[in-house]
């Protein structure tokens, strides 16, 4: 009869995603607002092992919006925090922001649009001087 060659049920299909690099994982979303978390570069002085963490940069995120009032009422400071996720450990913790644009400049956008080479429409033909 026929030879049975192929093994069915390759291992790893139901395995944990912990071993996978962050880039290979599914996109994480914020549990507070559902926005897709964005990769941002950590400040070098932060002392983290990672170079990048994920955070919710949605300005309408209830977690972030409540943070302003909470910090103001507790500490009388105009500071809030965003939902942050350490992809290596899976630990979520707030990261303080001092303005709506704080850390925004650190967001790493993966989908970089390739720089379009601008073709110049027409060469400027230089005529040699007349007769
Ligand atoms: Zn959020």
Structural class: alpha+beta
The major β-sheet equals: 4 strands, antiparallel
Number of helices: 1
Computed over alpha carbons, the radius of gyration is 25 Å
Report the helical percentage: 10-25%
**How much strand?**
15-25%
Per the principal axes of the C-alpha atoms, what is the gross shape?
elongated
Mean of pLDDT: 79
What is the number of beta strands?
4
Low-confidence stretches: 9-24
* Alpha-carbon distance between the two ends: 92 Å
Query: Which sequence of SSEs, written as H and E, runs from N to C?
Result: EEHEE
What is bound: which ligands? zinc ion
Provide a descriptive summary of the structure in words.
By secondary structure, this protein is of the alpha+beta class. The chain has a domain at 35-106. It is built from 1 helix and 4 strands, in the order ββαββ. The protein has one helix at 62-75, and strands at 38-41, 52-55, 80-85, 92-97. Strands 1-2-3-4 form a 4-stranded antiparallel beta sheet. The longest helix is centred in the middle third of the chain and has 14 residues, at 62-75. It is elongated. The N and C termini lie far apart (92 Å). 15% of the residues are buried. Zinc ion (ZN) binds next to loops. Zinc ion binds at residues 30, 32-33, 35, 56, 58, 61, 63, 83.
